[in-house]
Design a protein that fits this description.
The protein is of the alpha/beta class. It is built from 9 helices and 7 strands; from the N terminus they run αβββββββαααααααα. It has a 7-stranded mixed barrel. The protein starts with a helix and ends in a 6-residue tail after the last helix.
């Protein structure tokens, strides 16, 4: 009996130890599962200008609100904060390779987390193990603001601050009505200006365009100013010669006045009389210019014909039937044609084959009729044979 009782006690103790060990393993396994001891992670580095005062290790790493890892450690290097992240291996393939990092917190006093942000131009590639991500934005926490405010207040001198506040108080003292009237006047001015904001905005745009034009022309303007300065210095250096020139010009003007002054009435009359001739010359200027150009070309073409090269005059002569005798007053011309002078249709180029237009006008009582049959003029024949008969 004693042996059975001892054996039963030993079995119970052994069972108790095994149960406690099993419970310990279960609790440790649950804790390890919760803490991620059994998860496969991949290292990724985030480099930020700073991490903030409430960024701690084991902070969450999220992508689109889903936790994909934890912050393993935070170190400082070359004035930047370096965050070593532990990204879950099974979620690494879901993270784009061009993500950026934001370090921010959900509340004012809450702990910070690393938020991975996909660029606006879309995801590209897949994040690799050991990659380095840049942080674009780090939220400023309230205690950092307090710290900076304390630093600013520590630099202020209370007596000078008090004096400045007292001066401001003295300036506003008994001036409330004037300040109120100024604000009221400003409100009225703004009220009148508000309906014209569109015109004012357009004017400002045009002013900006004008300023850009002036900015583009500014180098040339500055060169002009430099040249003007150089010109002024040149005139200053030659002021003696300039004085002599002005004196000479004054003497010449006096001499011209003594010569032209007595004849100014005749000169004015001559200019007035030449107005019609000048007007006619101006009207026929295109034709005159055309004639001069054509004459120059014709002279070049006709020089060989008139013996420039060999001293011989080359003619192509022939006989044409004569016209009827001039009869007065039937053959008097009529001046009824009017056409502006022109140089068109190849008139200025004798070498052209273009045919100029013929202007038909009523310039005689009998239109010209070319003779189609030969006619013997006995009077001229006898004159050629026996000479002209004596007159009276």
């Amino acid at each position: 009996m004693i042996r059975r009782e001892e054996r039963s006690t030993a079995v119970r103790r052994t069972a108790a130890v095994i149960m406690v060990g099993a419970l310990t393993l279960v609790v440790a396994g649950a804790a390890g599962q919760f803490l991620g001891w059994f998860k496969s992670t991949v290292p990724v580095t985030v480099v930020a200008p700073r991490a903030g005062l409430v960024m701690n290790p084991d902070a969450k790493v999220k992508l689109r609100g889903v936790e994909v890892g934890r912050v393993r450690s935070i170190t400082a290097k070359d004035g930047h904060a370096v965050l070593d992240l532990a990204i879950a291996g099974d979620k690494l393939h879901d993270i784009p390779g061009n993500v950026r990092a934001d370090i921010k917190s959900n509340t004012i006093f809450g702990a910070k987390a690393v938020t991975l942000v996909v660029p606006d131009d879309g995801a590209s590639g897949v994040l690799k193990a050991g990659a380095t991500i840049g942080a674009d934005h780090v939220t400023v926490e309230l205690n950092t603001v307090y710290q900076r405010l304390v630093d600013v207040l520590a630099q202020l001198q209370p007596d000078k601050l008090n004096a400045a506040i007292g001066a401001i108080s003295t300036a506003f003292d008994d001036n409330g009505d004037a300040i109120g009237r100024g604000i009221d006047s400003l409100s009225k001015v703004l009220g009148k200006t508000n309906p014209h904001l569109d015109e004012l905005t357009s004017l400002l745009r045009e002013t900006a365009t004008t300023m850009n034009l002036y900015a583009g022309a500014m180098p040339n303007m500055m060169r002009t100013v430099d040249n003007a300065v150089f010109l002024g210095n040149t005139l200053l250096d030659n002021r003696t010669n300039l004085d002599a020139l002005l004196v000479s010009a004054t003497g010449m003007a006096n001499t011209g006045q003594s010569i032209i002054g007595p004849q100014k009435a005749k000169i004015i009359a001559m200019l007035n009389d030449s107005n019609p001739s000048m007007a006619l010359l101006g009207y026929n200027a295109p034709g005159i210019a055309c004639f001069i150009r054509t004459a120059a070309v014709g002279l070049e073409m006709g020089a060989p014909i008139f013996g420039l090269n060999d001293g011989l005059l080359k003619l192509n002569a022939g006989l044409l039937p004569g016209k009827d005798q001039y009869e007065y007053p039937e053959d008097l011309p009529w001046v009824r044609g009017a056409a502006p002078p022109t140089c068109e249709n190849g008139l200025s180029n004798p070498r052209t084959k273009t045919k100029a237009n013929f202007l038909v006008i009523d310039n005689a009582p009998r239109p010209y009729q070319p003779r189609t049959q030969p006619k013997l003029n006995t009077t001229k024949v006898f004159q050629l044979l026996f000479g002209a008969p004596p007159r009276g």
